[in-house]
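Working notes for the structural subgroup meeting. M.R. asked for a predicted model of this chain before we commit to crystallization trials. I am recording the input and output together here so anyone reviewing the notebook later can reproduce the run.

Input as submitted:
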Amino acid sequence: MKYSNQYITINSKQVEQINKTKARILFNKGKTILFHPCNMFLYNDWQTPLSVKLDESQPLFKYSGYHKRIKFFTTYETLQDANENLRDGFKKIYQFDNVLNSFEYYNCCSQRGNYTNFFAEVKN
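Returned structure, recorded in token form:
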């Protein structure tokens, strides 16, 4: 690992580099993970580490007056049922490997680096 045994400050938080297995475990626990292409310097003008977190406490959408005019939930009796069904789909899509594949597809190449470095906040 490029930054092993080093504590680095990113966005005024002290972080350390972790491997992919530990990043997957922390992501599934709901901790914030930082993704960054391996050949890019951490402190540059072109790209900064991307903060990724699985947060199920936020609603996926809000029921507002605009949605009332559209028959949005025709197959569900209540908004709660619709929200729970969408949350199950959200959990399937927003898994660590899917998020990582999307990040690497758009941010990793032969010049920036073909894989991702992972960083997690250091516990004080």
